[in-house]
């Protein structure tokens, strides 16, 4: 999403597709996209497990001694 404006700029100046694909900028954007995707994929299950653990710990009843 953030690189969309830059890609439009490249197209406006008639830069070849091969030249665009060989730029460091494209490799950087791909690496950022992969890192962000991996972060989201790992964060959601971890947060769910942590929330389930916290909620289950609160609902356990402690036996009352008489």
UniProtKB/TrEMBL annotation:
Entry's transmembrane regions: 33-55
Signal peptide residue numbers: none
Domain of life of the native organism: Bacteria
One Pfam family it belongs to: YibE_F
Keywords (A to Z) from UniProt: Membrane, Transmembrane, Transmembrane helix
Gene source species: Breznakia blatticola
Keyword Hydrolase applies: no
Lineage per the UniProt record: Bacteria, Bacillati, Bacillota, Erysipelotrichia, Erysipelotrichales
Protein name: YibE/F-like protein
Matches recorded under InterPro entries: YibE_F
UniProt entry tagged with the keyword Phosphoprotein: no
């Amino acid at each position: 999403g953030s690189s969309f404006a830059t890609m439009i700029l490249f197209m406006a100046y008639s830069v070849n597709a091969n030249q665009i694909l060989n730029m460091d900028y494209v490799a950087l954007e791909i690496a950022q996209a992969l890192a962000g995707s991996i972060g989201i994929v790992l964060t959601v299950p971890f947060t769910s497990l942590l929330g389930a653990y916290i909620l289950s710990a609160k609902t356990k009843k402690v036996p009352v001694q008489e």
